[in-house]
Structure formats: C-alpha cells, structure tokens
Design brief:
There is one protein chain. The chain is mainly alpha-helical. It has helices at residues 12-44, 47-59, 75-91, 93-104, 110-148, 160-177, 180-189, 195-200, 202-216, 221-279, 286-291.
C-alpha cells in the first residue's frame, strides 16, 4: 500500500514575515547610513572651524604663546575628519531614533505609542543638553584646573588627537548621564519598580551617581562632581515625572475597565430584552437580532 501523503515542506509564505522584517531593518539601516554620510559631506567642509570651536575651552586657559600640537603626521587631517563624522552621527540622532521607533511601532499598543513619541523627543533633547552642559560648564572649570595645577617649568601643549578623544568621551558621558529621567520613567512604567521604592533607595542612588562619575570622567574631583550632581538632580526630576506618568497609566486602565463594564452591561441588557420578548411571544427587533452572538 503506497502512502500518498506528501512530506510537509516549509513554503516561502512561512518565511515571509521574517524576511519582511529583515528587509525593513535593512532599508532603515541604509537610510540611517545615507543620512549620516550626507551630513558628513556637509559638515566636513567646516571640520577645521568646528575643531577650533571644540578646542576653545582649552585654548582659553593656555598660557600666552602656548598652542596645541599634532604629534602624528596625518593628525591635522584625520582628527578634524573624525570630529566631523562623530558630529554627523550626533546630528542624525533624532532621525536614528525615529527609525528605531518606526521599526518597533507596529508591535506596540496605542497607549505605548503615545508614550514612546514624547520619550524619544525628550531623550534626544536631554542628550544634547548634556553635551551643552559639558561644553559650557564642565570644560571651562576642568581645563582651568588642569592648566593651573601644571608643575612649574612644564608647558601645557596638548595633542589635538588626544584632546578630541578626551572631549568626545566627556560629551558622551554627560549625554548618557542626562538620560537618567527617561530611564527612571521607563522602569516605573514597565512595572520593574515603583516611585516609592526608588525614593527609599535614594542614598544608594546618590552614591552610585558618584561612582559612575568616577568611572566615566577623568580622575579629578571637579569633573566627577559635575557629573554626579546633575545625575542626582535628574533622578529627582525623573522620580517626579514617573509619578505623573504612573497616575496617567492608572487613569487609562480605569477608563478601559469602565468601558469594558459598560459594554458587558449593554450586552446583558440586550440579552434580557430578547428573553422577555421571547417569553411574551413578541418577535425580536432586527437590532436585537444583530446583537445576538
């Protein structure tokens, strides 16, 4: 007796959802890369001027006649180019975050989408605010301290490549540190913790802020403190905002539960009306027929 059943074979339709997501991810990555490259082409022309702006906080504290140096033969070309590339990525950050959100948005609920959009906008603004704070507040104090504590007979002549790596690290550290309110809101919104629990752990969080400041900044008390204190203040702001968002979440849940109860009450009343009509021999109306399950 022959078996006419055919073995199951995965069809292209089974793989289509995964391939669709992969193709979408590829397209969005290509858009991000193309955007960064276009920005880089426009920014690279002003690379030297931009480097001068970045180096101003240090040069303002150098002694008269001192200047920055380049110890590498091609440093005068590749260092401004590196700055232009990193700046292009920073400028493209809103577009990058939007592409990330657009990729995951179909899998989110409506109330989650309403939350994600303001969080993306605020996280971008906070990242830029951290960089601005580092440039206008941290750099003048930090470089003034470094130059003033130089031993007698030592001329401060910083290499342009070493300086760029240093300031980019500080920019990134303060940009990420200023995201503390967003992290706090997300932890509370997802149910991982509560505002009361975070408030009770405030002493540990303050100590952790100073530890993070020690790891992300140079080994001087000024930059560590200037990073730890804003993180503490931003944590308190995130704690207040998390209570507000949590209250909104509870109100939305109560509204959804009330709507579900109203729908169930309407269905129950319709069922009772049909039952009474059948008991008295009265034919049900077309609307009642449509409400039948």
């Amino acid at each position: 007796m022959t078996d006419n059943s055919k073995p199951s074979v995965d069809t292209p339709e089974d793989e289509q959802p995964l391939l669709t997501h992969l193709f979408e991810m590829r397209d969005r990555l290509l858009r991000v890369v193309l955007t960064v490259l276009l920005l880089f082409v426009g920014v690279f022309y002003f690379a030297n001027d931009l480097y001068h702006i970045v180096a101003t906080p240090l040069m303002a504290h150098l002694p008269d006649g001192a200047s920055m140096i380049s110890t590498k033969p091609a440093g005068t070309f590749f260092t401004p180019m590196k700055l232009a590339l990193v700046l292009s990525i920073f400028l493209a950050m809103p577009f990058i975050l939007y592409q990330m959100w657009a990729f995951v948005a179909p899998g989110l609920y409506t109330h989650e989408r309403k939350l994600i959009i303001p969080l993306l906008i605020s996280s971008t603004l906070l990242f830029y605010a951290g960089m601005v704070f580092a440039y206008y507040v941290v750099f003048p104090l930090m470089f003034g301290f470094f130059v003033n504590v130089a031993p007698e007979g030592v001329t401060v002549m910083t290499d342009i490549s070493e300086y760029l790596d240093f300031v980019l690290k500080i920019f990134f550290a303060f940009g990420v540190a200023f995201e503390v309110p967003i992290a706090t809101i997300l932890l509370v919104w997802t149910g991982a913790t509560t505002p009361e629990s975070l408030a009770g752990k405030r002493p540990y969080i303050v100590v952790g802020a100073f530890v993070i400041g020690m790891m992300l900044t140079p080994p001087d008390i000024i930059s560590q403190t200037l990073l730890a204190l804003p993180m503490w203040v931003l944590f308190e702001i995130g704690l207040i905002a998390s209570r507000y968002f949590l209250r909104l979440k509870k109100e939305r849940q109560e509204e959804e539960e009330l709507e579900d109860e109203l729908d169930s009450d309407e269905e129950m009343e319709a069922a009772l009306d049909r039952y009474e009509a059948e008991e008295h021999g009265v034919p049900s109306s077309p609307e009642d027929d449509n409400n039948k399950p």
